[in-house]
Structures are given as C-alpha cells and as structure tokens.
Specification:
single chain; alpha+beta; Alpha-Beta Plaits; 5-stranded antiparallel sheet; 2 helices
Length: 98
C-alpha cells in the first residue's frame, strides 16, 4: 500500500480515515497531557504525526472516531485542554469543525 495523502503508520496502514476527528494543540506539552488524560479514561484515541495539511506547530495531533467526539471533547474541556483546532477528515481534505 502506498500512502501519499493520508498519514500512515510503519505498516502502511492509514492512521486517519474518513470521518475521523483530529485535535490540534498549540504545544507538545498540551498534546501529551491531553493524551494522558484521555487514555487514563480509556478513550480510544491515538497520538499521531499531524497531517501536513493541518500545519500543527508541535507536529503531533490526537485522532479519534466521530462516535467518540462528545466524550473526548467533553473531557478535554473539563480538564482545561481545549484543542486549538479540531478537524474532520473528508476524502482528501480536512474540514475545520472547532
């Protein structure tokens, strides 16, 4: 499999699929803290390299399924870790939703 548009893992599997949400943070500290909080609550998230199209300053982002959006974003808000931006992958593009 060749991935040129999507972010891929070492096996060539797409890390971001259509409908997935991508949370962008303004610092590496905040994205790492958000990952710890979300994984502490056993939410199915993944820390990924930020897709090039999103230009994240820290280079990392958190990916989660649309079905988990309310739980993920609610917990981040409650913890004072609101992402700088939230995008949803649609085809080859990312739609800014937050």
């Amino acid at each position: 499999m060749v991935c040129t548009i999507a972010v891929c893992d070492e096996k060539g599997e797409m890390m971001v699929r259509d409908g997935d949400c991508i949370a962008i943070f303004h610092s590496i500290h905040r994205v790492m803290k958000a990952e710890k909080v979300l994984k502490g609550q056993r939410l199915p998230i993944l820390l990924i390299p930020a897709p090039r199209a999103l230009h994240a300053d820290c280079g990392l982002a958190i990916r989660y399924a649309a079905a988990d959006r309310e739980a993920v974003e609610g917990l981040l808000t409650a913890e004072g870790l609101v992402p700088e931006e939230i995008h949803v992958k649609q085809g080859e593009h990312y739609l800014k939703v937050g």
